[in-house]
Amino acid sequence: MFSDAFDIIWTYREGFLAGLAVTLQLSAIIWTVGIAGGTALGWLAARHPRDWGVFVRTGAFLLGGLPILVLLFWLHYPAQAVFHVVIDPFITAAFTFTLVNVFAVSSLVREAIADFPTEYLTAARVCGLTSRQTLLQIQLPIILRQILPALLMSQVVMLHTTLFASLISVEEIFRVAQRINASIYKPVEIYTALGMFFLAVSLPVNGLAIYLKHKYTRNTSER
Questions:
Q1: Looking at the domain assignment, is residue 222 inside a domain?
Q2: Structurally, how many domains does the chain consist of?
Q3: pTM of the model
Q4: In a domain, 101, yes or no
Q5: In terms of C-beta distances under 8 Å and separation of at least 24 residues, what long-range contacts does 54-62 make, across chains too?
Q6: Domain that holds residue 93
């Protein structure tokens, strides 16, 4: 089975690589804008809980209860029909998944900042540290350690979510695999090949998470 999958990958390598490129482009937008925008929004929500905090909690609550596929279809079909616009499916998919990622990341950041122990900040002031030193040497390392596992896991989930983009005709890797299967009908080999592609992309992310955890964090029980 695996040898057949490799044969299919090699035979249709141009199509698979083109689809993978679209998937990675989509993921790069989701990750970059989602993490940057979510971090900024989470910081605002933690600093201004009565306005931005309510906004983040409400948005995360609504998006958490709405299936991503339903949101994607609604933005691609009814919303565009209502506003009489035609938007490229790639843009619609990128916007939808990025929106979900922004609120997911902002919730992680908001909770991490809001729950940060005030005793550490008091100790930093007593030791004469400036606000900048406190942020860089105390707050950021601890907050990073707290959110890093969940953050990286959520980004892998967003990578897998890009498969839904095929349902609105985005030529990402899953849609390419479907078209190849329609022509040769070897679903076992083709979707095995697809799984291998996703492992090739997801495993480095998991490896990066382990590397960052060991390099930049340590167990507080260690001496």
A1: no
A2: 1
A3: 0.86
A4: yes
A5: 56/103, 56/106, 56/107, 56/110, 57/107, 59/103, 60/103, 60/104, 60/106, 60/107
A6: 2-216
Q: Cα separation of 122 and 139, whole Å? A: 12
> How many C-beta atoms surround the C-beta of residue 132 within 10 A?
8
Query: Is residue 193 in a domain?
Result: yes
**What residues have CB less than 8 Å from 19, skipping those under 6 apart?**
171, 172, 173, 174, 175, 176, 177
Q: Taking each helix axis as running N to C, give the angle between helix 13-47 and helix 89-114, from 0 to 180 degrees, rounded to the nearest 10.
A: 40
Q: Are 28 and 96 in contact (CB under 8 A)?
A: no
Judge whether 136 lies within some domain: yes
The CATH number that applies at residue 90 is: 1.10.3720.10
DSSP code at position 1: -
Give, for all 223 residues of the chain, the pLDDT tens digit: 567 777 777 788 888 889 989 998 999 999 999 999 999 999 999 989 989 999 999 999 999 889 999 999 999 999 999 999 999 999 999 999 999 999 999 999 999 888 888 888 888 888 888 888 888 888 888 888 888 878 888 898 899 999 999 999 999 999 999 988 888 888 888 888 888 878 877 788 777 777 766 765 554 334 3
Torsion angle of the four alpha carbons 11, 12, 14, 15, in this order, in degrees rounded to the nearest 10: 180
